[in-house]
Structures are given as C-alpha cells and as structure tokens.
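Reminder to self: keep the SMILES exactly as supplied, no canonicalising. Ligand is NAP.
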Amino acid sequence: MKELRVGMLGFGTVARGVASLLRQNGRVIAERCGIELRLTRISTRNPNKTAAMNLDGIAVDADVDALVEDPTIDCVVELIGGLDPAERLVTTALNRGKHVVTANKALIAERGMALFSVAHSNNKDLCFEASVAGAVPIVKAIRESLAANRIESIHGVLNGTCNYILTEMRERKLSFAQTLAEAQEKGYAEADPSFDIDGIDTAHKLAILAAIAWSMPPDFGGIHIEGIRHITDSDIAWANEMGYRIKLLAIAKHRPEGLELRVQPTLVPLGTMVSQVEGVFNAIFVRGDHAGITMYHGRGAGEHPTASAVVADLMDLGRNLRAGLSSTRVPPLSVANDHLHPIPIHGMDHLECEYYLRLAILDRPGVLAEITAILARHGISIDAIHQKGGATLSEAVSLVIVTHQCREMDLQTSLAVLEGLETVRGKPVVIRMESGLN
Ligand SMILES: NC(=O)c1ccc[n+]([C@@H]2O[C@H](COP(=O)([O-])OP(=O)(O)OC[C@H]3O[C@@H](n4cnc5c(N)ncnc54)[C@H](OP(=O)(O)O)[C@@H]3O)[C@@H](O)[C@H]2O)c1
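Structure tokens returned for the bound complex:
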C-alpha cells in the first residue's frame, strides 16, 4: 500500500492526540484512504516529554529545522502554535515540496495570505480544518458543502474557555475571577488566559471563517474585539432574570454597505439555539441564501477532538495522492488566491441594535430623570429599567437599562456624557443584544 509520510512539529496536547489517533485507528484510516498515513518523525523542543507514549518506529528529536528539510517526509503537521517560528517552518516545508497541516489559527488568520501564496507556487496544500472549532468540521462545511450559496451571516460560540467560564458563573453564581481560576486548575484555561478571555482567539477563528465565506483575505485587523473580563456575576444574574444568556459571540453579517465583523459578549434570548450552547462546547450557525440556516455543534478543543480534524486533513491529502489528483484542487479560501478580494468593513459606529447598560449610580432624587433625559436627547429610547441595591444615599446602586434599537454612535456619545455625571460612578457596562439569532 502507498504511504503518506508525516513529520510532526511539537508534542503538546494536540500532537499527542494525533499520534494516538493514528496508532489506534491506523488500519481503518488506511482502508478509507487507500493509503497509509505513517508518522515517521516528531521534532519538538523537549523530546523527553514524548517518553510517556509508545512511539516505536517514530524518530524523535529537537531539530525542527531539520524536520522541514527532511526529504523523506511528504507532509508536515505544525502543532507548535504561535507565529514564530511556525511561519518560518511552514514556509520552508512548503518550499521543500511538502504539504502542511496545521491547527494554528493565529498563523492562518494573521499570516495566511503569504503562506497560501507559497503553497500555491509550490503546488502544495496548506490545510487548517483544526484551526477553527476543533472537531467541528466547519471549514469544510463552508468551503465545500455550502459552496453553492451566497453566505449571508455566520455567528457562533468559538471559544470553549469563555463559554465554560460564562456557563459556570451562571450555574454556580461565581465571580469571573473564581471561575477563571477553576478553569485554569482544570486545564480549560491557559496560565496566561488573555488570548481566550480578551476575544483574540475567537477573532482569529472568525477571520478564517469570514475569509472562506466571502472569498476575502483574512481580515483579523478589521474585527471589532471585546472580551469577557468586565462581565460580572450580577450581569449574568440580570440577564437571566430578563430571559437572556450572555455568550461571547463571533458575528459576521454581509450587508450591502460592507461586512460586520464583531467578537463581543452578547445577550441572546433564552430559547434560541445559541443560548443553549453550554460549557466547553462550540457551535456555529451559517446562513446561506439557498441552504438557509445550518448549525454545527461539538467539542471545539482538546487533545482528541482537535486531533480528529488534523487527521481528517491528512486523509484528504492521502486520498489526493492515491488518486493522483492535483493538490490545491479545492482552494484553501474557496476561490483561487488571485480571485480573493478585500471587503469593506461596516464600521461599528453604524451598527444598530438593542443594548444592555449597567451603571453604578448614587440613588439621589432626580438622578434617574437626568439619565433618561440624556439618553432621550441622543435619540435613545428605553425598553426597560431596573434598579437594585444600596441601603444609603451615599452607596452606589446598580441601574440596568435595556434600550430599544439605536445607533452605536449615539449610544457611545450619550455614555460619554453619562460618565461625566457626578452621580454616575465608574465606567458603564455595555453589552449588545442580538434578537434575530437562531
Ligand atoms: N489545545 C487545543 O485544544 C487546540 C485546539 C485547536 C487548535 N489548537 C492549536 O493547535 C496548536 C497546538 O496547540 P497545543 O494545545 O497542542 O499546544 P501545546 O500543548 O502548548 O504544545 C505545543 C508543543 O510545541 C512545542 N513547541 C513550542 N514552541 C516550540 C519551538 N519553538 N520549537 C519546538 N517545539 C516547540 C512545545 O514544546 P514544550 O512542551 O517544550 O513547550 C509543545 O510540545 C496551536 O496552534 C493551538 O492554537 C489547539
């Protein structure tokens, strides 16, 4: 039987999963592809860390540069993460005539265009299914299964760490800091969690999905990004009381004026499917003009789920090799690189939605009238207003306001005025609401 010889860079969480999946399911994988996927070499910073796993027949060393030059290897699996040296290693591997499979969303979102161009000029594939939503086959779904559609919108929960934190905060009435500490203990959050909780990881994934959906170069810089650090247990409790959940959502909407690209905590009505996505799970909803809405749900991270996506990419390469099909048969971003075109971004100022506002105010006579008058002056009408806490006149109380649909620009201008009031303490918390979701 023919074989595809695979070299793997890194031996962390995902790489361990790939080695173990190839070992456990090697036979069935070979039957399905008609070709054997053979892991022949692993190069990682600290080869001693591979000792716990049986890697008989696989060369292990620390020389990542030698692996990408190794003439016996057909395909490099990059699982070290980050931009450098990953970009350099992937570039070299492609230039040496090897296909590359990666799970590295930062690399694809931020350096993808240069790498796709190197892949194309070498007639090699650069595959990245595992870079978005782990086991959930969303890259292939948008690029291939929905290829006949004009995509109208994508929204979803793309970061299991944030979703776990928000779920636990709600269910166990814990603070953000307590829940984050627990997530770190359980291995759901990194020691430095900023990429996850500040929305960067989600934005990398959104940049990739939008690029495929709208045949554009990944536009990470065009995404409005907000994380979940400022969400408190009281916001979650308020949302619950009003019939909403708070989710960190990736949202992309194609409008005549341009593309809306946002990562933000969002109030979503209970009863919508996205409100039911709990814990470490991911879910993506894609609306196509002919398919309508489709939903993809599953484990977005972890050793085994992510390995499942990496190995599926390897199987595609194996099948192409066996059938003698040209690489780049399916362009990575759905159309040939030279047909990709940037799309203007629909600026946040022009966004229109409903808003949840939480202000800490001193409960003095007339303060409510003053706040509502300022909002009214900026064309913002109020749907609901709630107040809680504060035993004395000098103690701040929480005032929660839900607005009707209004323009972001008007809201931001009015907030600047509100922040200047003597009776308003600290920065108001603003969470956008999305009512038209599935
Ligand atoms: N973990 C997930 O659930 C998940 C899900 C989807 C996508 N991804 C992506 O998959 C990739 C790998 O993630 P992971 O969680 O497996 O990471 P990880 O556990 O931190 O493993 C990274 C591996 O790469 C090695 N490494 C890092 N820098 C290196 C360098 N300069 N030279 C040689 N080896 C180096 C590390 O060595 P040391 O052990 O010595 O540090 C470690 O073995 C990332 O791009 C990540 O975003 C991960």
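Points to follow up:
Residues 277 and 283 are 7 Å apart (CA to CA).
Residues 10-15, 44-46, 49, 64, 79-81, 85, 103-105, 130, 134, 301-302, 306 surround NAP (CB under 6 Å).
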